[in-house]
Structures are given as structure tokens and as C-alpha cells.
Amino acid sequence: GITRHYKFDIKLQKVTRLCHTKTIVTVNGQFPGPRIIAREGDRVVVKVVNHVQNNISLHWHGIRQLRSGWADGPAYVTQCPIQTGQSYNYNFTITGQRGTLFWHAHISWLRSTLYGPIIILPKRNLPYPFTKPFKEVPIIFGEWWNVDTETIINQALRTGGAPNVSDAFNINGLPGPFYNCSAKDTFKLTVKPGKTYLLRLINAALNDELFFSIANHTLTVVEADAVYVKPFKTDIVLITPGQTTNVLLRTKHHFPNATFLMAARPYATGPATFDNSTTAGILEYARPNTSSPTISTKKLQLLRPTLPPFNDTSLATNFTKKLRSLSTTKFPANVPQAVDKHFFFTVGLGLNPCPKNQNCQGPNNTKLAASINNVSFIQPTTALLQAHFFRQPKGVYTTDFPTNPPLAFNYTGTPPNNTMVTNGTKVVVLPFNTRVQLVMQDTSILGAESHPLHLHGFNFFVIGQGFGNYDPKKDPAKFNLVDPAERNTVGVPSGGWVAIRFLADNPGVWFMHCHLEIHTSWGLKMAWIVLDGKRPNQKLPPPPSDLPKC
Ligand code: C2O
Fold it and tell me: What is the rounded distance in angstroms from the CA atom of residue 392 to the CA atom of residue 59?
């Protein structure tokens, strides 16, 4: 591989959407941010220079960061943030991955404006295991607030209430025609007839899972989270925040008498943070230059896709179940066939007491929180990875993250009485090469919502999922250990569970959290420490000299 250099200048930029102008934090003045393009095996060096008042850190979501944990990016987990006027070189090699991922800010809510695609092409002369696309197009979904998102989250955390939902979803930064004052900000994809396009779908929205569809066109899913899957056709794609999905779009053979809308809107199981609006873009056929140059696109019929009802859980479940690793000799699914360590995590919302002399906006004067095994994660003030590497955990973290919830969990459909969480900065320590099985059970406390859990530093295999209580006696018999989907983000279904396996072959400190940003902010997060192995190539190297200090 070669080394690809990028320079990311973090600076302010005025941007107008929905007739509201605000100053946002950007990379190089772009919104959404620039693309990173590399090949499998390449080294990527991104020099990030912070010219704004906010502390910054960037995360390369889904990049495995094998033995390069110092470049992973979550603030106070693998690094202290980059302060005003400072810079940091994120330096990592892309090993064993090709497909679509994305980068985003990993501090507070700055990822609302700081995000962009990562495109990893296969090694030179290695073809895709599907039709060679005529063109490749990133389609990145985001959210837009008319006001500053840092203000929104800071106020929500202070008062303990829920933050306002966004004012619009967008496609490549453009909300599209269904919002007020937005028709001119519509993404348009111009295509030729009879060709195959590779659409690289990325959900960079903060708080919403999305259904996506294109009118009168069937899509073929070929990849999820930068892992090839067994191709399947679908009219609707479900994509949670943190997930990426590559689909093939085969255009019609003849110039159609219509233009087509592509559209996305939320999937939600409960109305808790219900945010029902639709972002749309246009799929337009380039008029053939030989014939009828006089057809005006204005006269063409505009066809809309049929998106499912917002709470169509059976559609969501069926879509997820269709995702299977390609699992060929060239692209094997290396599912751990045995388990060294079992974990059972309950994930969900909860409450914190209201500080004295304060009025809190959570239920019964409490503060909204979220937890894993009843532990709501408190962000440390120095980075976990440094504390671990230099063997100074004292006052930073403790290693007693519980393997199981404090009380045996029993999902009855109604929330349990004790919804208070405990707070702490707790981690799990894993010896090198531990084969981990983790079952995550949604508690459905307070809000019925599925939780897109994202694990840094690894891909995991989604070996099983179901609704109701996970049954350790019966459910493992149904696990798929042959060709399960391999990914970095999985939705824990509302009122259900998901089982994953991964091999802890990457030394470092690895964050795991709900990729709904509000749930992360409320504490639905934890970290795994993976110890060094014995051999030199199983150890985490020391930190780079420009690693930011707290
Ligand atoms: Cu895309 Cu820890 O995040």
C-alpha cells in the first residue's frame, strides 16, 4: 500500500439551510466534510489542525485500528481532545477491510456537522465480488438543527430533559423539497440508462434509524459496514446511525418518462423521540444527446417511493435477518466457534436523582440517564488509553464493569420499578485473543427504542437475535456460526436481544456505545481493555509524540 495524506483544518463556516443561517464547525469549510479515499492496505495520515474554540477529536468509524489505537479518536477514551491552536496526526493502516465507512467528530455533539465518507477500494487488480459499477456515489444521511447543537445538548444534560429533535434530515447535507424553504437544497443524482451504480449509504444522523428507498427502483445490498454480504434485492433499506450499506442500483434500460425521488425517514418503535419527517433527493436520467433534446424534465412525472410506516418492526427485522456474510474462501467469515468469556448486558434508559435545589425535567423531577448493566458511564477527565498504557488507572477508571446485570433481568413488557442507575467509569479487561460472546438485552425502560450499539476496534458477528427475554438454554441452539453478518454496529431490538461474538485480537482501549448520540450522552457506553499478547506484533506501540494532552 501507499501513504495517503490529508489535511483537515477545523474551522467555522456560515451555512444556510431551511432559511436559517448559522455558523458551524467544519473540516476545510465543507459541509458535509471531505471524503477520504484509500485502498485496502494503504496508510492514511490525517493532519487535523484545530482553528476553533471547541475541543476536537475525530473518529474513523469502523476502521479496525489494528495496533493503532492511539488514532481511534473518541475523546477521553483513546486521546485527550485537540485544543484550540493544536494539531494531531491521525495515522493508521487499513488492514483487511474494503467498502464504505465514515469519519465523524467524537466529542460532545460536534458530529452533527463534522462528518464525511471513508471509501476503501479493494487492493489494485482485486475485483468486487459483484458487477463492476459504472459509477460510485456516496449518500450520507445527516441531521440539521436550526440552532447550535452544542447549546441543545448542554442544556438537555443540565436540566435532565430530552433535547429537541432536529429540524430536518438531509442527504449529502441537503434536506430536500419536503421541508419549508428547502426545495433548492435538494440532492440530485443524474444517471445514464442501463448502467449499474454503487450507492454507498452512510447513516451519520445523530439520533434516528432510517428507512431509505428510491421510487420504482429495486436495490441490491452487497455490503454492510465494509464487509461483503450475500447479495439480496430489496425496495427498502434500514440503516441505523453508525451503519454503512453498499447497494447496487441498476438503472432502467430506456429513458423513462419520469424522474424519481429517493427518500429517507425514521424507523422508531415508540414515540419517545419521534421525529417524523422525510428527506428526499432526486434521481434523474440524463437525457440522451442523440434523440429528442426537446423533452423538458419539467414535464416528466415525479414518482415517490413508498416508505413503510415509521413503526414497521417486522420489515426492520426481516431486513436485518437477510444480512449474511458473503463467506467464501476469498472472503471467509471467521466466526469464533468457541467462547472463552460470556457477557450479558442490559441496555436502556434510566434515571439519575436531581441535584438539590434544582428543577429537573426528567420524570418526577429526575434527570434522564442511560446505562449498560445499570452502570451509567461517567466520562473521565484524562484518556483511558493513556491511563492504561502508563499503568495509572487510579482515579481514572476501575476494572469492575459487571459481566451481568445486578438483578436477573426479566422483560415483562412493563418497565421495572427501580429505574435509577449507578454512575461510574468502569471497564472490562480482556486477555489478548479472548473469544467473547456478548448478549445485549434491551430493557425498554422509559422509551421503547432499539439501540444501535457500536464497538470500536473490532468487527463482530451477529450470531442471533430475538424478541422478549434471551433464553440461555434454548436460544444458543439457533445461533448462526456459519455466515452471520459481520459488522461494527448492530441494533439491539426494542424489547428484544442480540447476540454477538468477536475475537479480542486488538490491544488497546475500545469504546462501546449506543450510536444514538443522546443515549451516549446519557451514559449508554462502556469500554473494553484488551491486553497485549506475548509476541511483539501483539502489543500496542507507545503513543505518538504529538498525542494531545489533557
Ligand atoms: Cu461512530 Cu464511537 O462512534
Answer: 24
